[in-house]
Amino acid sequence: MLVRPVGPSDTEAWLRMRCALWPEGSEAEHRTEIAAFLGRSAREPAAVLLAEDDAGRPLGFVELSIRPCAEGCRTNRVAYLEGWYVVPDARRRGVGRSLVGAAERWARAQGCTEFASDTQPDNEVSIAAHQALGFGDAGLVRCFKKEL
Fold it and tell me: pTM of the prediction?
């Protein structure tokens, strides 16, 4: 397995995986965000890493950013795991671990000493995956909104 930065030739595979991870977004929205990243006009994500098998088949990706703060963190430059996806038939085979390991190396190279992430409070699979890779619980935030 190889983990490497995403490139223009990965657009369709990245699009399919993004649509699976974030189905609430339209394909057009995902395409626009991918084009902005590849065109270097996007602020986020700061990096996207793709895992592929020995035959070059995409297995998953991570989208990373650097935030000025994150829940439970002390520094003002925190690497953030914005998105993390592994295709269903590649799960529980070390792909997620390899992606997060590569993300941690990227974060250290950016000068970060903390790495944060989030998930929905009821996403038990994601919670277990984060914990298995050494993430600790930083608290639960309930968000509110009000129409004006």
Answer: 0.90
